[in-house]
Amino acid sequence: MLASTFSNSNIYEAGCDEAGRGCYAGPVFAAAVILPAHFYHPLLNDSKQVTENNREILRTVIEQQAIAWSVAMVDNDEIDNINILQATYKAMHLAIDGLSVKPELLLIDGNRFKPYLGIAHHCIVKGDGKYAAIAAASILAKTHRDAFMLQLHQQFPYYNWQKNKGYGTAEHRKAIIQFGLCKYHRKSFDI
């Protein structure tokens, strides 16, 4: 079972995670989520461990029951300009900016983070499988990004982003060879 909080104190903790960092196309998304202290849902886990249908169920639950949540994105052009790591930090900062309640502690999935002014943070490797707030952020980042990629698929169906969501699958790479790159591809990536 995921831990509901990182600290035992009565402070607002925001979990932060990203989606789409390793993709060939589309933006990187990040989410920040503050959950009630004793939040529990049996399906909640790292988004990669949850089925697509269950992620959609969880998205609704999280958005309805969270104390605060926010999702932000940085597009492929900016990723090319500032690099994917800096774009990931920027997306997380934008998500934190969007919270309606200011957190007192940030729980970051991973091992690196660019400090957010005035708020302490902890980086937790595989945190999306350990803490509920990070898992919730992973669900929101993933579902919001997937929905965005489905919209882009309508413009460029031959890349099949409705299925691969911009990741470098064999099918996606074959389509790039056949049709070339489009305006949503990350030109700085070694495709």
Protein described:
- The protein has one domain: Ribonuclease H-like superfamily/Ribonuclease H (Nucleotidyltransferase, domain 5).
- It has a five-stranded mixed sheet, sandwiched between helices.
- It is an alpha/beta fold.
- It is built from six helices and five strands, in the order E-E-H-E-H-H-E-E-H-H-H.
- Helix 1 packs across helix 4 (132-155).
- It is globular, with a radius of gyration of 17 Å.
- The mean pLDDT is 95.
- Belongs to the RNase HII family.
- It holds the Pfam family RNase_HII.
- Residues 11-191 form the RNase H type-2 domain.
- It is found in: Cytoplasm.
- Its cofactor is Mg(2+); Mn(2+).
Summarize the structure.
This protein is of the alpha/beta class and 191 residues long.
End-to-end distance: 38 Å
Helix and strand pattern: EEHEHHEEHHH
**Gross geometry:** globular
Q: Please state the average pLDDT score.
A: 95
Helix content: 25-40%
Remind me, CATH topology?
A: Nucleotidyltransferase, domain 5
